Amino acid sequence: MPRDLPDNIHEESGSADGNRQDSGQVSLIRQEFAGPLPHPSVLAGYDDVVPGSAERILRMAEKQLEHRIDTESLLAREQMRQATRGQHYALFICSLALVIAAGLAFSGHEVTASIIGGLDLIGLAAVFIAGRVFVRSSGEAEPEASE
């Protein structure tokens, strides 16, 4: 076994009579730490090397957290704005199609009007059904139906 082992690995060998006897056992200590900041002992090590660096690292983590919260809030607001805009456009387009269908029906083009009106209603139903299926498959909470 190599002699340049780290301090936290200890080789267990030897015997009472002084002859070296390799038992083949090795102890290994493994530590894990997860989080946005280094382990406190590592943070203290930074502070030992450069005084005040631990405080700077903490400030950096706080600024990063604030930035992330701000970015996620902005993203949520923009997604809501985009969804609202899409609903307004859809309402306008569907209303326009129904008005055109009604105008065609009153001018004697009942077949064309029924095709446009029917496709408009089928399209609306398909969008609502597809939206509910997408919400279920993505794991988001489905909106409650209000009575």
TrEMBL record:
The chain crosses the membrane at residues 89-107, 113-135. Pfam families: DUF2335. InterPro entries: RP532 (IPR019284). Keywords: Membrane, Transmembrane, Transmembrane helix. Residues 1-23 are annotated as: Disordered. Residues 1-13 have a biased composition (Basic and acidic residues). The keyword rRNA-binding does not apply. It comes from the Bacteria. This is DUF2335 domain-containing protein.
